[in-house]
Structure formats: C-alpha cells, structure tokens
Amino acid sequence: MRRAAVVMIVGFVALVGWACRQGAVQAAKASPVERGKYLVTAMGCNDCHTPWKLGMKGPEPDMTRMLSGHPEGVQVGAAPSLAPPWGMAGSLTNTAWAGPWGVSFSANLTSDPETGIGAWDEAMFIAAMRSGQHLGGGRPILPPMPWPFTGKLTDEDLKAVFAYLKSVPPIRNKVPEPLQPSAPPSH
Ligand code: HEC
To answer: Whose Cα sits closest to atom 9 in ligand 1?
Structure first.
C-alpha cells in the first residue's frame, strides 16, 4: 500500500518535471520577434504608445495606428494648471502628458526610419531603456515612460522587444519635442 503511494508520488513528480521541460521547450522555440511581441503586449507599451480613440465600449488604443506615438495632428496647448494634490494630466489620446517636467509625448516606436525607430540600432535601444537617456545618450527620458522598470528586462528580452518593434509596420508620424515646464507665476 505504502509502496503504491510512493510509486504514485514519484510518478507525479516525474510528470510535473516533464510538463515544466515542455513549457521551457515551447518558450525556447518562440522566435525573438514572437517573444518581443509577447513582451510588448503584456508590458502595456500600447497603452501609452498607441493613440486612443473612442470605441464602442469607451476609450481604447487605435490599433490601426499601433505604436505610432502621439499623433502629429493633435495640437497640445499649455499644460492645465491643477490644484494639489492633482499634479498630472493626460490627453484623450493617452499620448501627451503634463506634469512638473513640462509636457511629454509618447514616442513613435514603429519601424519608420525618420519618425520612428527604424534607424536605431539594438545597442542604442538597450542603452536608452537602461540609462533613461534619449537615444541612449541624450537628454533624460521624461515621465511617464517607465524606463526604470522596463529597463530591468534581460539583454535577451530587450533584444527581442527591439526585434519586434523593427518588424512593426512603419507609420510616418512626427511626434513633437517635449515642452519645458512653464515659468512659475510672478507675484
Ligand atoms: C505610461 C506610459 C508609457 C508606457 C507604459 C511605455 N512608454 Fe515608452 N515612452 C512614454 C513617453 C511619454 C515617452 C517620451 C518620453 C520623452 O520624450 O522623454 C516614451 C519614450 C519611449 C522611447 C524613446 C526613448 C528615447 O530615446 O527617447 C522608447 C524606445 C520607448 N518609450 C519604449 C517603450 C517600450 C518598449 C514600452 C513597453 C515595454 C514602453 N515604452 C512603455 C510613455 C510610455
């Protein structure tokens, strides 16, 4: 009786081990582009980098403009003044952000060479995501881009994200430069 129980437990452990190995084999089979698509989808890059439209169930990312950043046609004026504790505002497209840093605009992550990341190389992308510097060595990347967290991905995962972004159909859309915070009111 006891022996049968031991055999069953050993059998169960072996089965779980086999199932785990199968899972690992599946994951290893995913190409970098597939892995990158999975990461970009699950990490919510579309939430900020794909402009929102009003859909049947309310605001939602407009996937016909997938990852193309703040639409160049949507003009943004001076940041609204907010009474504390309110301190941040976002546009209806979820691509323009006002806060103490001024106004930031979500970047075009499609493969367009002029307005997207088509001309970037892998090293620049990894450096930008890790250092929080524009193009991997320029001005600080502004909020709400969560680079301190997305930059924690392994090199392999960041390479996969980049491979996927390079495969995203190009959309020509020139995102504006960030706006400086307005000068404090003089008294
Ligand atoms: C909460 C909103 C938000 C999320 C989520 C987000 N981003 Fe961003 N991202 C931004 C904003 C805003 C900017 C522009 C910041 C600036 O101009 O300084 C930006 C800029 C970038 C840039 C340009 C960096 C540079 O050198 O100027 C890259 C690349 C980027 N994001 C990749 C990603 C990826 C990949 C993901 C998902 C893993 C992601 N972002 C998720 C808001 C977001």
So the answer is: 145
